[in-house]
């Protein structure tokens, strides 16, 4: 097949795929599931890929059980699994997925020698209650979250659609391709929990080219693309538990050991960790639950915390400061302190080669308006574990950013993006794959 | 009937009732229900009283809907009602009780002119997870809580048993009695929510003698009784909600309005309200829930708080201080503040007449070892609304304390009492009722 | 001398003394000196007593050096001593007083066998800046503090005047008296520092009757007197120092160990120590100084704290809580913590005999309108060390309260009292002394 | 004079000047004075410049009274002035300098047409107590601070020496120079207070070339120089006062309005202002003084605060957050709040021309080992007011950094630098001045 023809065929393929991309995105938006509980999500993805004859690895085949962090409580898992069964996920799937073994890996082997290219898409939602407002597109168009309290507020619903689109594209253009393709549909990206267990199962060990990316991040126009990303913040996700002693708050308050006040104190102290001259740092106490009733001195308190740093050293600084403060807070109130690391992301760097590659590809496309050589992420992404693995073995990795206007920021309860970004993302990555076939 | 014979008959009656009292207590202990959700509890009490031909008032007949405070969320009510149905509470009961209309009033009219005597028993449990330890009697004997996370940790299970025992006693000795009897099985004492709606329905309007009381409080020996109680702390129960703005904690933390830190700050500030030279005060932040996820700036926070004071003025001082601090905290973080009073108890005084009465009764009993004229409560009890109503109309009221050793304090997850206190409480109140028939 | 005549003579004596009492009070008010630096004050008292032939003990003769707590820094002492020299205190006095050996003990021996009666007056001022307002009597009448930043804001200027008045009275009526008299002009009452070193020098060892007292406390009318006082709060006075590491706040804030934030945290935590069901407790962080400059992370912080309790156990509870919190705060910020007890007062009880005695004396007086058997202090007074010493040896002790209206509370910068209380206090104590001569 | 000869003469001149530079530096190190109180410092500088026939502007001639911020309290000024008089500053100087009119401007006019070159040196010390340790050079060599509690801990003693050295150099090479020279010896750089009042007096209005700089900052080797500096942090210096109500902490704590706790709360809240995704921010509460005595509820509290931002907008964000929090804290405690801006620095940029210039000059020197085109400051410097003024009128400005190893960071109580940096700084600036004569 000649390049000129292929280029035309891609335009045609993308054009035909567009309504399907929107349809997928809206379907997943309606059924958001949070990390390690993407049972229905994984099943829907699997069914789609099976119909295209991809070879699938699910459950412990996809990821290493022990490397998973931040697994939800048993009861929550059970409830989600029950819901998935009611939603129609068949027993043979549930057996593999049960206990938080979500996500999957799909492989396509052209049978011809060539590069091993890996693509990664994250699939989890967030514990955010979606806004009910008719100005919010999912509400207006009737595809808002049906799982109360959970929401695709970071665009991973779009990422799944892009991944499925690319799976179709690889199959469609299989005769023009050589080498092997690995598509990783990663669970539990939020909290930095799902990448490492996939890496540990060896999927990235011999990858030559690695592509992942994100829609949005910055509020750009449709057609803007960043070829690489920097400012991946290293991050530690920490759960803290204080255990004190209950007492009647009126009759003998002095007998209590107040775990609620320990949480409150730790929250304010952590928020006050000094800025660092070495670069960007972050701290957030995202969730706090303490106490059982109004007239009881709280004997239990629990916090979900994260630290971040522009590099691993800065995150370590934040972590060490937090650790000292949390233990001192326990001593302050005479309560027992437990501190557990439940997620982790490292820093990361994209390879410069991708700037030239994306610029080349952009020159072939009618839809890509502007290529930024690099844009900052300013957040954490455990994709860095995959990128570093590929790079350590001599491969090249990048993390693209696909521009779309954002009415509200990521993780906002009215987050939404312009769905026109979906076909553009498929086109950019698709054209990159084809470009890589012949790259000199 | 001669007094000597009656005295002997009471001993005999109490002796025969004892195993039944223990059996009732253990049954209710196994099925604890928290305030406004005592559906099964109310039904069991009702069935027992119906079998004795008491005239019952249930639902809106028993209490005034609008006067209720601190009603649980709709969803919690629904879940409890569903559970009650599964537990066998029939539809005709559920219709009356639904929506948090628990508790009941039982009446017995001797048909003979005489005093109107009212007895009050509180029936609600606490949101405490019962300890699972074989040294804990309910575990050892297999009657621990079957409602996970809820527990009769204040002895109200015993109070119900005492109330049922007294209902039997009144029926048994009906020929020796004159006047009328009203037995109030009050819901939602914890949080100071259930007494006022019963008062407002008029049950206490023409009461001559009012008796309530509590087992335990102080760790006394079996056989010790306090004829009156002082130090009823006035109390305000307050729910506070902060509403801020969510934002991605890594990408743009400055966009958030942090409701979790508002909760933490308010907690520490409230805890620091200055002591008052006028007397005892208390503050407790018993419950705090804020935030939805680790990497999101929390946009929601909620606290359950109570203030107390040795008298109404001191509670008002605490309330005013808390109010100012809570609103200033909202301003501190630029979040919206909502403050709702969900319960209230006033101060109270027992009438001195009861000291002589209880001493008289004690002299007739083999089981009462020691009468304290007065003991301090040091806590809040919305029974004070009933007492004050009775006293305002010229009646006399008291609140007895029945001694029992306590291994752990009230509201402790291993709270327990010595069941020998049950027959003693029935005997003291029963003999008081009979004594009041002939009092000069 | 007959009793009737004596009673008349006392009236006459007091009447003549009144303008002198006011004059003394105003002189001392103009020259307030804080604890252990009452150099000029002691000298003025000494001169007055020497002129009456009292036998004086000054310096280490009056108090035991090692038992003193909370001695000001060397430099402050030096400055005060220099000022005293400039004010005319001669070298022979300064030699004895130097280094914080202020206060004195004056003895009068009638040479006749009889009781040993001790009277105690505290002489120190407070580090409060007196208000400059013409509505404030000392300003209006031109006798406001000449020592900037220091003020007699607790009425000890009045106590000195009363003490000198009684010294005159004892001398004047010496022929009607028998036994011995010891007048203790105690330094450093504020902070609970001066009583114990006097006790340790043996002055109270064989005392039969001990009288001290306070003007004001409650806002009563002139002529009201309390025969005894209760609610002496036990108290611990604590200095806390945090030592961290300075760093440039802009260039490398992470290098600092912030002693200022340690002080802030400790302050809020201490303020939040739980109330105790056992009775009244108090905590106050009265002074905080931290940091050296705006753009430097503070490496030094210092706090002056006090705890109180209705009895020694409750103060110990507060002290223990404070200790744990202070050390945990040091750990929180990685700073060195030093905690030093610089003052202490124990609880105390007055002997009931004094109620009858004061009532008797009141019946002889035209000026005493009302005798309260007992009034609460609600504060700390190290006079309790003296009282307990006397009581342990079989003597009787009381602490009188002399009513006066108070426009502003004690320790307020516009504190003032009605000077008519001065002759009444002299009369009450003077008549008590005379009454004790003949008591059966 | 030929360039070759001149280059040689400079080497010779610098060599001869070196011991004098060290001697000046040590003299000023011994007599550190903090901002607006550099009376002796200014006098010493003036005497030296007068002896070289510079034309001096002192007092209100040098700076605009009203534009000064953060003037110390009257009493502190008076004490410093008294000390200066004792130290020998004659009345004609004191008259001009009194009331915080320190610093001076020295002018040299060659009489030949040419550029107007301005040099700026800051002269103030810090309120830091110098360490007494024989490993610390000033102690070892006996030139440690003689003003207890004050210290040249930022190297401005070195800056003064460099300024005097350059004054000598200009005079020495006057025949090779044309145009005019203005040397600004600026007071009160710490706190960002002294630059603007000099700018407002017009000294920078027609300046063509502006040079200032700093020794140290980064721990570099002797001989390293940065031609320009970036990351000037915009900064606001704020004094906060809380005024509450005093009360006796034992007797009636509820009557107090606690200004000390307001300071503590504000400190912790300010420290917790959220990081900003837009770039570097800083906050420091550098000094806190509250309360008057241990047993008094504190009615006064005072804090010295600074905010910083990588640019003016980020500093404004910090300032606005701080403002809201400080006022909310006042409301929290019911105390009056006063917030006063006492210093300000803006962001700033050096002109790129200087990189080429310094590299040129370095090529002529034996001592300059390495030229960094740019190094970050990471701190605030009110020199930015001068730079911006010059640049707005078309002039060029830079801020050099002169490398020296630092055992301890700036503002550390054992801060010191390697004195070999002094002749290098004189040489770099001196050669720049000569280079600018002929620049094409």
UniProtKB/TrEMBL annotation, chains A, B, C, D:
<dbReference type="InterPro" id="IPR052030">
    <property type="entry name" value="Peptidase_M20/M20A_hydrolases"/>
</dbReference>
<dbReference type="GO" id="GO:0016805">
    <property type="term" value="F:dipeptidase activity"/>
</dbReference>
<dbReference type="GO" id="GO:0005737">
    <property type="term" value="C:cytoplasm"/>
</dbReference>
<dbReference type="InterPro" id="IPR017439">
    <property type="entry name" value="Amidohydrolase"/>
</dbReference>
<feature type="binding site">
    <location>
        <position position="154"/>
    </location>
    <ligand>
        <name>Mn(2+)</name>
    </ligand>
</feature>
<dbReference type="Pfam" id="PF07687">
    <property type="entry name" value="M20_dimer"/>
</dbReference>
<dbReference type="InterPro" id="IPR036264">
    <property type="entry name" value="Bact_exopeptidase_dim_dom"/>
</dbReference>
<feature type="binding site">
    <location>
        <position position="156"/>
    </location>
    <ligand>
        <name>Mn(2+)</name>
    </ligand>
</feature>
<feature type="binding site">
    <location>
        <position position="190"/>
    </location>
    <ligand>
        <name>Mn(2+)</name>
    </ligand>
</feature>
<feature type="domain" description="Peptidase M20 dimerisation">
    <location>
        <begin position="238"/>
        <end position="311"/>
    </location>
</feature>
<keyword id="KW-0464">Manganese</keyword>
<feature type="binding site">
    <location>
        <position position="214"/>
    </location>
    <ligand>
        <name>Mn(2+)</name>
    </ligand>
</feature>
<dbReference type="GO" id="GO:0071713">
    <property type="term" value="F:para-aminobenzoyl-glutamate hydrolase activity"/>
</dbReference>
<keyword id="KW-0479">Metal-binding</keyword>
<dbReference type="GO" id="GO:0046657">
    <property type="term" value="P:folic acid catabolic process"/>
</dbReference>
<dbReference type="Pfam" id="PF01546">
    <property type="entry name" value="Peptidase_M20"/>
</dbReference>
<dbReference type="GO" id="GO:0046872">
    <property type="term" value="F:metal ion binding"/>
</dbReference>
<dbReference type="InterPro" id="IPR011650">
    <property type="entry name" value="Peptidase_M20_dimer"/>
</dbReference>
<protein>
    <submittedName>
        <fullName>Peptidase M20</fullName>
    </submittedName>
</protein>
<dbReference type="InterPro" id="IPR002933">
    <property type="entry name" value="Peptidase_M20"/>
</dbReference>
<feature type="binding site">
    <location>
        <position position="411"/>
    </location>
    <ligand>
        <name>Mn(2+)</name>
    </ligand>
</feature>
């Amino acid at each position: 097949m000649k390049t000129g023809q292929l280029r035309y065929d891609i335009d045609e393929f993308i054009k035909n795929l567009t309504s399907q991309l929107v349809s997928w995105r809206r379907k997943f938006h309606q059924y958001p599931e949070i990390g390690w509980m993407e049972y229905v999500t994984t099943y829907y993805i699997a069914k789609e890929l099976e119909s295209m004859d991809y070879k699938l690895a699910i459950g412990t085949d996809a990821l290493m059980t022990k490397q998973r962090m931040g697994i939800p409580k048993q009861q929550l898992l059970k409830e989600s699994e029950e819901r998935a069964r009611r939603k129609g996920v068949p027993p043979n799937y549930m057996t593999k997925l049960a206990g938080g073994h979500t996500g999957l890996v799909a492989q396509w082997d052209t049978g011809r020698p060539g590069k091993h290219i890996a693509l990664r898409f994250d699939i989890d939602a967030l514990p955010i209650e979606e806004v009910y407002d008719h100005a919010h597109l999912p509400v207006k168009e009737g595809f808002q979250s049906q799982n109360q309290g959970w929401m695709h507020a970071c665009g991973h619903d779009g990422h799944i659609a892009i991944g499925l689109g690319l799976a179709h594209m690889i199959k469609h253009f299989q005769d023009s391709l050589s080498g092997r393709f690995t598509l990783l549909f990663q669970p539990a990206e939020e909290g930095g929990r799902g990448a490492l267990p996939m890496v540990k199962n060896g999927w990235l060990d011999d990858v030559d080219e690695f592509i992942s990316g994100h829609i949005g991040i910055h509020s750009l126009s449709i057609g803007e693309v960043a070829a690489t990303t920097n400012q991946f913040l290293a991050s530690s996700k920490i759960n803290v538990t204080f255990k004190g002693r209950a007492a009647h708050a009126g009759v003998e308050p002095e007998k209590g050991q107040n775990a609620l006040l320990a949480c409150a104190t730790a929250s304010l102290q952590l928020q006050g960790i000094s800025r660092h001259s070495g670069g960007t740092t972050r701290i957030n106490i995202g969730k706090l639950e303490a106490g059982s009733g109004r007239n009881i001195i709280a004997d239990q308190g629990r916090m979900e915390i994260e630290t971040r740093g522009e590099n691993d050293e800065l995150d370590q600084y934040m972590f060490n400061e937090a650790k000292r403060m949390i233990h001192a807070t326990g001593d302050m109130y005479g309560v027992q302190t437990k501190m557990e690391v439940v997620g982790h992301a490292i820093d990361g760097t994209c390879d410069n080669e991708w700037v030239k590659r994306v610029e080349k590809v952009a020159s072939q496309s009618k839809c890509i308006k502007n290529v930024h050589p690099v844009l900052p992420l300013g957040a954490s992404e455990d994709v860095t574990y995959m990128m570093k693995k590929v790079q350590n073995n001599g491969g090249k990795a990048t993390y693209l950013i696909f521009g779309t206007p954002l009415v509200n920021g990521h993780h906002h309860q009215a987050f939404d993006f312009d769905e026109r970004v979906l076909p553009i993302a498929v086109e950019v990555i698709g054209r990159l794959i084809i470009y890589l076939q012949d790259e000199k």
